[in-house]
Amino acid sequence: MTKPAPQLQFGWEEWVSLPDLGLPAMKAKVDTGARTSALHATDIESFGRSDSPQVRFMVHPIPGREDLVIPCSAPIVDRREVTSSNGETEMRYVIGTTMSVGGQSWPIELTLTDRRGMASHMLLGRQALLDHITIIATERFFQPQLDYDVYHSKEMREAAPKRALRIAVLSREDNYSTRRLVEEGQARGHTVEVIDTTRCYIAINALMPEVHYDGKRLPRYDAVIPRVGASITSYGSAVVRQFETIGTFCVNGSEGITASRDKLHAHQILARHKIGMPTTAFAASPKDTGNLIGLVGGAPLIVKLLESTQGKGVVLAETKKAAESVISAFRGLKANFLVQHFVKEAAGEDIRCMVIGSKVVAAMKRSGAEGDFRSNLHQGGSASKVRISKEERETAQRAAKAFGLNMAGVDLLRSESGPKVLEVNSSPGLEGIETISGKNIAALLYEEIERRARPSPARRRKTATPGGAGF
């Protein structure tokens, strides 16, 4: 036999909590004349699959505090026509959530509507009031009073529910990495949309910066995962920059993407942060060829095109004469290049460290094909598991941080004088590293996105607002 719930007394206004929405303290007006409960929400937007639609919205939990906003999402229960007390009728999304009051919790339905300017940002209708609740309409606050201060606390951020996010993957390719990002995101309850970077166009406006796609303005995304190909670095970075202008969290920023793709710029950043790398030199004049070779310790040396990828445009010159010939040929093609000390002891092997956030989450050793000094998997190289040292781990972390990248593939050489960074990849592939390490790298990336996309605690105002607990 089920034990009946204890009796509760409600006044015409009570403090309630909506934990599933990340709203630990709300003042609600009790209105027995209304059938349906309502929550003040703005920026209401449906998303997700048609068979399991969801809605995202913003909540200002404290009346008069427009600076405090909590992003929320919930499955859609219904879309219903509701007539307000002033006789206006509107179609509203209906969501189901849990309400907690006085140590008891029960499911309720809420309609979402803009209640801006109203004294109460939440209305409790008859459907939310259980049989064991007695209403005393002449009094208020029979139940324990909560405090708006909770919205300023560290605990607020840590306890925020893992809401469904709307995420864009900027990618032109239907490859393993793109498919894994979509698959893993959807498995975690998010909506993940693949956007062809080159089909985006941007409206540059000081008041309303926007990104358009296929004739329509793109919706507001919680996060963007850039997978910008080397051939469209400039345009792709511009699109990412536009998302940054809007205020969207981008896993990798436009500056980091641009800098990582320009090998000269990248090595200058590494040098500025005192991160170990092979001795590197650059010159424009053919008169400086001899000095250029001498600066990196002579032959053998590496000649690299500044925008080379996947081992293409990288040449090993084993003698001074060969180096002069390669440099002359590149200059004849008007190609920008740099020369670099050849780390012979690396023996055609390098280490790819995958950095997510501020941690190295996986690593693999890549070995070049027989007779090839390049270890790129795209050039026929092979990969295997590897244990990295503390120094190698710290070097990879510092390199990713120097470029401001939240996801990076940092390639290291093991030299006699310590780890040397060859490259920082802002769009690292997932297939090789997931296969070799056995780790779910896509899931680790989403953990970082979920952490970063949660609302931060609001900054405490210096002056209190009268009329509310704690304000």
TrEMBL record:
Annotated PROSITE patterns: ATP_GRASP
Origin superkingdom: Bacteria
Entries under SUPFAM superfamilies matching the protein: Acid proteases, Glutathione synthetase ATP-binding domain-like
InterPro entries per record: Asp_endopeptidase (IPR008503), ATP-grasp (IPR011761), ATP-grasp_RimK-type (IPR013651), ATP_grasp_subdomain_1 (IPR013815), Peptidase_aspartic_dom_sf (IPR021109), Rimk_N (IPR041107), Rp_bS6_RimK/Lys_biosynth_LsyX (IPR004666)
Residue ranges constituting the ATP-grasp domain according to the UniProt record: 267-450
Cofactor(s) it depends on: Mn(2+); Mg(2+)
Pfam families associated with the record: RimK, Rimk_N, Zn_protease
The entry's keywords: ATP-binding, Ligase, Magnesium, Manganese, Metal-binding, Nucleotide-binding, Protein biosynthesis, Ribonucleoprotein, Ribosomal protein
Any one Gene Ontology cellular component term annotated for this protein: ribosome
Region (Disordered): 452-471
GO molecular function, one term: metal ion binding
Gene Ontology BP term (one): SOS response
Family the UniProt entry places it in: In the C-terminal section; belongs to the RimK family.
The protein's name: Probable alpha-L-glutamate ligase
Native organism: Thalassovita mangrovi
Top-level taxonomy: Bacteria, Pseudomonadati, Pseudomonadota, Alphaproteobacteria, Rhodobacterales
